[in-house]
Each structure stands twice: as C-alpha cells, then as structure tokens.
Write a structure and sequence with these properties.
Length: 386
C-alpha cells in the first residue's frame, strides 16, 4: 500500500485536471494526477471535444472566467512548448431570417454586458466577407473576433507534459475507488495502487465524477450524456476561418488544418448502461451533416469520414461546479462542464491553483458547488432520472 503524501491529488487527467496540475506544479505544489486510462483517450470528453475556444454565448456566471481564458489562449502554445493547432479565427453566430436577426441585436448587447466589448453585429454583406461561401439565406451574424479553436487532444497532452516537466506525477492506468473522509474532511483517495493522502483532493473526473463524490456522501446533480462529432473528408484549406453556429440550429462548424470540417452542436448518441461507452445514433449523424450543409454548402461537396461521441458530464443548470463545497473540507470540484468547458481550461487551472494556495478566485463565485443546495430534492431527482 502506498504511503506517499502529496500537497494535492487530482482525480482525472483530462484537459481540466491537467491544466490544474500544470498551474499548480508551476507554483511548486507537489501534485499527483490519477487517471484510470491515459490523458485524452476515448471516450473521455477531452478526447472527443469540438475544440471551440469561445466566449460568445456564455452564461453570465462564466463570463469573467471566459474572458481570462480567452486572453490566455494566444500565448498558450509558446508557454507549453507545444503545437495545439490553435487558431484565433473568431466565432460567428448566424441568423437565417429577419426575426432571428432581430434577436441577434439583443444577443450582442448581452455579450457586451458580459464584458465582451469587441463582439459586433454583422449585416449580410459583412457576413459574406467573413465567410464567402455562407448559405444565401443568412442575413446577419454576431461575431466575436477573439474566439477561435484548438485541437483538444493535443491541448490536453500539452498540459499534461508541461505539468510533468514541472514536477507533477501522473499515475496512469490507475483507478480511484473512493475518496477518503475523516469526519468532515477529505484526506486522500483509495486507488488500485493503494491509499494516498494529501492536503487537498481535486475531483475532475468528468462524466464519472458523481460516482466518486458519492463515496464521500455527496450527490452531484450531473448526468452522463454522449455528444456527437462528425468529421468530413478534407476540403480545400481556408474555406472557413471562424467557428460557425446558427441561432435556431444545433451546429458548431469549423475547419481543421488539414481542410476537413468538424461538426458538432450537441447532437446526442446513446450512453451505454455501464457509462463507459456509447453508440452513435444514425439520425443524429444525418441531422448534424444536413444542418452543416444547409449553413455552408461547401460541406456537401465532401463525405463523412467518421463520427464519434464523447461522454460528458451535464450539470443540472448547464454550468459547471467549480470550487469548494461546504461540509467537505479538503475537496475542490471541477466538474459538470456540460460540453462547453474546453475553452475555459487555462483559466480553470489558474483559478483552482489560487484556491489551493489560499488565494481568492472571485471569477468562480457564480460557479460555486454550494448552489447545489438551492435546487431542491425533487428537481435533482427529476433531472437525474431523465
């Protein structure tokens, strides 16, 4: 049985856990990351993510955190000494009729109220200048120029490698079976390699975080969902620079460096009964493809190369639980990112590290896990039973 002691144990080596590990190790914190497989492998969210780096459309509770994260992204490849295929091409939300265009005016005002002063409303001609091949029915768009995209697998592994260069230890292929609790304090974890103790435990195990939280008597209102991605055959490069979505469609559309189009937008797959695998829904694959073709006709000139799902933790109010929770000292949560956490990872790493060092993290105030107590038992039961 292990007798090692660490300043912090991070459960989960995905993009959140590895960003936290990197930022903490950078500050001299003795870090152990425990990952039951390896960083960014199927079907984890960090393997399957769409890779959008977005502020636009954020919940107000995420706004400050998103601003911090987006400001960090342009220098992240140099900082981590890795190619993550980051590109700051902006994020474009399009309207296909005048009613949708009118709603975009209020949407842009909301973005600016959230602190995103550079978000602007584009007319039909301006949208076409930005995306020459956009569908004819598009009449307007909301454009956030500081947004962009990156490769989620490369990013996750870049954080993990940088964390280890700065002294973090990774236990891959190691299962955490339970949180250790002494009274009202989490003191460590039980693992397939034995018990390990630490001053802090950070739970960042994605879709499987609820299972471990339950071992400490904490019921997290998160559920596992399978979110689909579709990849096309390569098209000519630079057909599409910004990430594109649509007001009343389920769509996230981007072009990768090799020219292929990557389609997302929340189309569901089927979660297996054991919550360890998934099945694609043919109707979701077809629906996602047809939606992308309707917005950018150039997609229709390609074929579907492959499709997959990632298992994500969806929270009851669709924003994450990040920080400490009353009644369980020594535990920090970074869970429930609901399919849109990737872009926040640099800021999450820094914010959680500040908490570990006894500093304030006001940007997390709206994401406090203590809000769980406000949902009520009936609402939580109804959410988890769906």
């Amino acid at each position: 049985m292990s007798r090692e002691y660490f300043d912090v144990i991070i459960v989960g080596g995905g993009v959140m856990g590895s960003s936290i590990a990197y930022h903490a190790a950078l500050q001299g914190v003795r870090v152990l990351v425990i990952e039951r497989a390896e960083s960014a492998v199927e079907p984890a969210a960090s393997w399957a993510s769409a890779g959008g780096v977005r502020r636009q459309g954020r919940h107000p509770a995420e706004a400050q955190l998103a601003s911090v994260a987006i400001a960090h992204w342009p220098s992240l490849e140099q900082e981590l000494a890795a190619d993550m295929h980051y590109r700051q091409g902006g994020n474009l939300l399009v309207a296909e009729n005048e009613v949708e265009a009118a709603s975009l005016l209020d949407f842009v005002r909301e973005q600016q109220a959230n602190g995103f002063a550079d978000v602007v409303l584009l007319d039909r001609q301006q949208v076409r200048e930005l995306v020459p091949g956009i569908a004819q029915q598009v009449v307007a768009g909301s454009f956030s120029p500081a947004d962009g995209q990156a490769d989620p697998i490369l990013t996750t592994r870049a954080f993990a490698a940088a964390a280890q260069r700065h002294g973090a230890m990774y236990w891959n292929a190691t299962t955490v079976t339970a949180l250790q609790v002494d009274g009202w304090r989490v003191t460590g974890v039980q693992t397939s390699r034995g018990a390990v103790t630490a001053a802090w435990v950070v739970l960042s195990a994605g879709a499987w975080s609820d299972e471990l939280a339950a071992t400490a008597g904490l019921r997290l209102p998160i559920r596992t969902v399978a979110l689909q991605m579709v990849l096309s055959t390569p098209a000519p490069a630079r057909v599409l620079r910004p990430v594109v979505s649509a007001v009343n469609r389920m769509l996230s559309l981007k072009q990768r460096p090799d020219g292929s189009f990557l389609l997302g937008g929340g189309w569901p797959g089927e979660v297996a009964a054991d919550r360890r695998s998934y099945r694609l829904r043919p109707q979701s694959v077809t629906g996602n493809w047809e939606t992308a073709c309707a917005i950018l006709p150039a997609v229709a000139e390609q074929q579907i190369a492959r499709a997959w799902c990632g298992l994500e933790a969806e929270s009851i109010d669709e924003i994450p639980f990040v920080g400490s929770i009353s009644g369980l000292d020594g535990l920090l949560l970074a869970v429930g990112f609901s399919g849109h956490g990737f872009a926040l990872s640099p800021a999450i790493g820094q914010s959680i590290t500040n908490l570990l060092l006894g500093k304030n993290a006001p940007e997390l105030s709206g994401l406090s896990p203590d809000r769980i107590s406000t949902f009520g038992k009936e609402r939580i039961e109804a959410f988890l039973s769906k």
